[in-house]
UniProtKB/TrEMBL annotation:
Pfam families in the record: PhdYeFM_antitox (PF02604)
Protein name per UniProt: Antitoxin
SUPFAM superfamilies: YefM-like (SSF143120)
Function: Antitoxin component of a type II toxin-antitoxin (TA) system.
Family to which the UniProt record says this protein belongs: Belongs to the phD/YefM antitoxin family.
């Protein structure tokens, strides 16, 4: 169940809302004049969310490559990575 607070609650109870976000790793939704306005979350939760989005993007990229038959054997990929490391590129 999402936690919804008003902008007045955010102003008057910032520490309580911050503690909730850090302890529960969940956002708090802030309303302004009765309408949804913001989602407040800890930096850790935000970074985890961004990491998931990046992973999903990479998975989609991989699926598209497989669909387009643009794939290579793992041994070839690993050989190329090792060579790039040896060359100081990575």
């Amino acid at each position: 169940m999402p936690v919804i607070k008003s902008s007045t609650d955010l102003r008057n109870n910032y520490n309580e809302i911050s503690t909730f976000c850090h302890e529960n790793n969940e956002p708090v939704f802030i309303t302004k004049n009765g309408q949804g306005d913001l989602a407040v979350m800890s930096i850790e939760t935000y970074e985890a969310l961004c990491g998931k989005l990046e992973l999903y993007r990479l998975l989609d990229e991989g699926r598209a490559a497989v669909k387009a038959e643009k794939k290579r054997p793992l041994q070839d990929v690993m050989k190329d990575i090792k060579q790039r490391i040896s060359d100081g590129e990575i």
